[in-house]
Amino acid sequence: MAVAQVVQEDVQVRETGWSPAEIAELREAVSRAPSIHNSRPWTLTLHRRTAVLRENPEPWMNHDPEGRDRRISCGAALMNLVLAVRSLGWGAQVEVGDSSGLVSAAVNARGAAEPSPRELAWAWAVAQRRSHRAPFSRRPVSELLREKITDAATGVRCGSRWVGSDVEAVEVARMLGRAASAFHADPDYTRELAAHVKPDGRRLQRESGDLRGLAAVGLTALTTHLPDEHHLAQLLRDESVLLVGTRGDRPADHVRAGQAVERAWLEATRAGLSVSMMTQPLHLPEVRTGLAERLGTSLIPQVIMRFGYPAES
Q: What's the predicted TM-score (pTM) here?
């Protein structure tokens, strides 16, 4: 009988075919994935030449009532896991499923296969990636780089769209402002946010109180300084804002959105850009629908991403 050996609290190893160095690389790649509120809502299990990522069975929270954030976070971790397997020189066959409302993804290493230059560049960027919630500088992101980011985000049943014109910026600002006001006025939500402690020991409410600008509407609490819609529209015009969406809205689609987010983030990171993402406004069905209608897209909005160059301190 095989006995599971817990290598780290979030990794289990059973009759593995992975070397200790490979195990360390797989774990490191997964641990560096972006996750909403740094929650890391997954467990990694290694068995023979298969790596399985499973969503943790935690209770639903008011700030993530449908588990969207958890599944998007798992998707980003899955992308990093695939890149780690590929960078080790293995082919990667991915199977995503869900059972009892929880998603899982198996990455099977199938024979030797050299990674592409793009995969190697993304794998390198995994360790460099950071979340930047502060305002950006006024230096614009080039159209060529924007095209590379949208190309990276494109995948099976998922894609992305930039917020472009002044009219679109105004419409998106209205939707984000309404969402922020709704969360700001929800006592159950703000109470939960005030009590929530992240794995690093910081309280979400304190973190949200420090946010300014567009990032503030992505994590709204009683202490958040919300910009007015006019200011929001100006920020949307000044920054490069990308809407990542999917063709469907099932658990597997949320995982795909997370994979798309991480690909776009890594592509931006390798080019020297800073990035942050927000999902909170998109928890409201009317905001998802409204954004899709106003931007004229058939995609179901899942994540809003900000791209830019950091402002000089």
A: 0.89
